[in-house]
């Protein structure tokens, strides 16, 4: 079982530099949570600038009209790319989600993506700032991703519930979950709640906590706290993302079942899925196809490097091989849905190799694997091999999950010699 209580030292800032933080106000309004007011399944959000938030914090300890205010989901990295405040710990650097969003939009449909909302849907790297007493309600992370949280300063108390017990905090229909584990919880609505066994952990300053996929958690700031929080997924938890999308899709289609005879029923379901979950089937399909392409390019490149240096397969090669197997396994699960084919999605490896953003994605992933596995630099070789790569595969177009499975099988077969002793 993955253990969420995984901490280590991360020497960064110290106590809150409020006046310094107040200068970061040029980007307009941010979403600040009112910890004292519930709105649907989350805390009510108020818009204000960082400087307004900091002024409120300095004036009355973060209370606004009697409520504690908590600045969450500030896309600091995306808004200030030139200001390198920290580096992602190596253990968490295999981050497909943010690699991708640094180069591509998750939504290509104009109905689900707006240039005016460029920052808010651009990445999943956040800064959180809250005074003592601010908190986050019980939840599991977006996309059922992994997450890590580093305390720059302050102290947090975490309460975790493993996936095997998550049904205990849901109602009988598995539609709604407990909001606050310390409030009065209705036994009739949540009959299993009292059986839940919670894991507790106190996170100190300069410590990092890793939250595995599917672990529900509630978090309280025991002191004035500033933290860095990332959500991410990769080959190891990719199946969690698809499982969530399928579950949420079934709920979305059930919700508008009365419209099932309409010609645009499927389009409505996908639009609602993107709005509620953060991506839809088409977004996810394009995402995993691009990562399959990127991993095949890297596999070809590293196999080329290995053949010139050593007969022994490197850890980076084994890592990429695992990634492709993981994508293939998810694609097999997607076959009954015919995800890409439903919308006429067609992705071509050759065209992607002509796309500068795709080459940069490959380079970012390759550089990360060099660091993780202490590998010799392969980026220059990557750039040299892309043209040769185009002639190496008969199949380069992917339109359905079946095509994707076949593409990965072809790639692993033709590059299988890279793993021979």
UniProtKB/TrEMBL annotation:
InterPro entries: Cupin_8, JmjC_dom, JMJD6_ArgDemeth/LysHydrox. Gene3D superfamilies: Cupin. Residues 77-249 form the JmjC domain. It comes from the Eukaryota. PROSITE patterns: JMJC. Pfam families: Cupin_8. SMART domains: JmjC. Belongs to the JARID1 histone demethylase family. This is JmjC domain-containing protein 4 isoform X3.
């Amino acid at each position: 079982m993955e253990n969420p209580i995984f901490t280590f030292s991360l020497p960064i800032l110290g106590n809150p530099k409020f006046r310094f933080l107040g200068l970061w106000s040029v980007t307009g309004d941010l979403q600040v949570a009112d910890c004292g007011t519930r709105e649907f399944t989350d805390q009510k959000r108020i818009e204000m600038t960082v400087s307004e938030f900091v002024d409120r914090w300095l004036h009355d300890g973060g209370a606004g009209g009697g409520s504690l205010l908590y600045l969450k989901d500030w896309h600091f990295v995306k808004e200030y790319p030139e200001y390198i405040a920290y580096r992602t710990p190596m253990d968490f650097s295999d981050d497909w989600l943010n690699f991708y969003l640094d180069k591509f939009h998750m939504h290509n449909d104009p109905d689900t993506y707006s240039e005016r909302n460029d920052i808010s849907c651009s990445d999943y790297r956040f800064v959180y700032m809250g005074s003592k007493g601010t908190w986050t309600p019980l939840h599991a992370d977006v996309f059922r991703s992994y997450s890590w949280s580093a305390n720059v300063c302050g102290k947090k108390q975490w309460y975790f519930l493993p996936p095997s017990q998550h049904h205990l905090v849901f109602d009988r229909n598995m539609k709604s979950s407990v909001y606050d584990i310390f409030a009065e919880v209705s036994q009739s609505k949540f009959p299993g709640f009292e059986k839940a066994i919670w894991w507790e952990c106190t996170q100190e300053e300069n410590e990092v906590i890793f939250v595995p996929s599917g672990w529900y958690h509630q978090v309280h700031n025991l002191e004035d706290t500033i933290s860095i929080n990332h959500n991410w997924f990769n080959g190891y938890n990719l199946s969690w993302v698809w499982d969530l999308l399928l579950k949420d899709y079934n709920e979305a289609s059930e919700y508008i079942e009365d419209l099932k005879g309409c010609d645009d029923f499927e389009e409505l379901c996908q639009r609602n899925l993107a709005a509620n979950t953060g991506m839809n089937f088409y977004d996810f399909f394009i995402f995993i196809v691009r990562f399959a392409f990127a991993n095949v390019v890297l596999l070809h490149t590293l196999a080329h490097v290995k053949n010139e240096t050593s007969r022994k397969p490197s850890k980076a090669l084994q890592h990429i091989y695992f990634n492709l197997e993981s994508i293939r396994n998810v694609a097999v699960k997607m076959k009954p849905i015919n995800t890409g084919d439903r919308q006429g999605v067609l992705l071509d490896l050759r065209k992607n190799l002509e796309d500068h953003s795709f080459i940069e994605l490959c380079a970012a992933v390759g550089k990360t694997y060099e660091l993780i596995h202490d590998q010799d630099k392969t980026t220059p070789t990557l750039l040299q091999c892309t043209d040769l790569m185009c002639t190496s595969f008969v199949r380069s177009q992917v339109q359905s999950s079946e095509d994707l499975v076949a593409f990965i099988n072809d790639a692993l077969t033709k590059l299988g010699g890279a793993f021979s002793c």
